[in-house]
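User: For a benchmark we're assembling, each entry needs the component sequences followed by a predicted structure for the full assembly. Here are entry 17's components. Please fill in the structure.
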Amino acid sequence: MIQQKKSSKANLIFILGLLVLIFVLEQVIPSSSMLLTVIKKSAIYALAAVSMNLLNGFTGLFSLGQAGFMLIGAYVYGILNIPVADRAAVYQYFDGGVIQFSIVDGLQGVLGSAVGLILGVLLSLIIAGLVAGVFAYLIGLPVLRFRGDYLAVATLGFAEIIRAFFQWDVLGPVTNGSNLLRKFANLDDFNIVSGGRVAVHLSTTVLVLIVVACILVITLIINSTYGRAFKAIRDDEVAAEAMGINLARHKMLSFVISAFFAGVAGGLLAMYQTTVQAMPFKTAMTYEILLIVVIGGIGSVTGSCISAFIFVGASEWWLRFLDMEKYNIGGLNILRPGFRKVVFSVAIMIIVLFFRKGIMGESELNIAGLGRWLKRVFTKKKAAPAAAEEGKNHG
Amino acid sequence: MAEHVLRLENVTMQFGGVVAVNNLSMEINEGEIVALIGPNGAGKTTAFNVITGVYAPTNGQVAFRDETIVRNHPQGKMKKLYRGENAEMYTAEYKLERLEGESDDAYAARQDAEKARDPFAFTSRVFEPTPDKITDLGMARTFQNIRLWKSQTVFDNVLIAKHLRRTSNLFSAAFRGNKKEENRQREEVLELLKIVGLEDVKDELSTSLPYGKQRRLEIARALATNPSLLLLDEPAAGMNPQETDELTAFIGEIRDQFKITILLIEHHMNLVMDISDRIYVLDFGKLIATGTPQEIQANQKVIDAYLGVEEEHAEN
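Assistant: Structure for entry 17:
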């Protein structure tokens, strides 16, 4: 128990350190830097992946509806936050739309710009999550009776339907049809501006802070008595039910929580992209998130976070050079646009073939454990020559 | 009427055309150890699954502490297929036939008696609770083929069973508003592990335990739900004679220590004869004998069921 407390304290300090590091980085390097982009996008994907992991990894429900819930979150956030003055321009094909208020603007009018922005954004993210959760509840009623692959197919179908639904012309006055939603409060609004220049960059830090808070809540749920019940359902449904765990209720709970945080991730994605459109929330997006979960380890929160960073970094940044034609290998110009995806696919195949349990398996990264592991590695290195010597003597 | 811990009445379970349990009635009293035995395929585990809510019976009812918990009558296509007895007993169509020369009072008295036996008599009420609700009432079971939560430690396996008796909701549990309850649960689990002798392996993975200890852990997990009736499905399956003897003693101990009633299915006759107060014998889904171990041992029908009968003998 005492050791547990100590290690969770160390983990908290590590996370705080990470936040401080990101804050400092943001001030030092230019805001257009690739590193910041990768950090932002991977933070959002990490949240989406952890929420998917809660369902797939911890409750054992194989669901592929994540992109659908993110889409709902993104739209809700966008719709609620377009300033009234800009509505006519955004909803130009739908006479300015039917919703004529903006949460952030409204709160800023009452509470001042800074407090209004923070509260407004948090409130609309929570609403985005809640709406996604309500959708999940309604879909869960019929769909959660399915098991295994059938559930995956049903949720996949839902995600596709919801995407078409949001692009439907009839809903245009609310969703703007297949046109962009834009001009809502985004991450750059958090930067503190003085005299026309950005004095303190906060966009990345704020985003990471929200993501960290959400993942912390998910971790708390996983480690609570409810999380233990989820794991029991994953391990053996029949035994879980026989030991008094109400399957329908707990599966629904996990499904709704997962959708809630996917919705929040969707809202954050809207803030990051500054625009929302239904098109990008395709099945491919769910697969990307699933890939992150699998690479990180099904059933590992920290694994999902680490692999989100690696995945986004690799696909957006580190493997970019493969797309450029300026490198010549042996007189052959094999590097050309699209080659990145070939290498990426091969890398993923290697991971799936040889590291089936992902980076972390089912274990979690913790700082105290990492320290012990490093210590072991170092003492082993010292011990290894001695052991070799001994082996020789015996031989 | 004395209170029975568990009372099965005319329970029939039919799968398609196969009648797995046929019109089974049995009673279990407070503090008893009752064994349900029978040759392979006799329907023992099916009866267990009906009691614990895994299957809804085709017909019949189950009462726990004189409260009807499971009740059903043949429905849908089972109406035509049904080959068991008392097909109408649990529907609104059920009527008592008037005996010859019976007075109105006597008839009413018989109807009242029927209602005392079955509070929902003369109605088509159906009760099909899920297994978790039945466990909530105070019945816990183990499985014929061990079903522990494989990725969890011994300690967590027992702790998860405590989830049922929580008072916390999702928010208080997530934000640790239930610290008192959580700590109390952990202490109780530790206490329980001490009693069943698994304290020294509490941090090991449940599947890394030897077979006999896994059985014990399953019993400990069932006990963690605070049951008043414990159902053991072949607790000694796959055990050698020494392990079986230990288990026999162990079952007696937990009955005395936790003051619970036990219903068990078992093939090891030594164990059954040693600890059972009463025995029910099933064969081809039908109850063929019931009584004390001595009576059962002397019962010709039981011996026939287990050893088979010669053709000519059967014809007599």
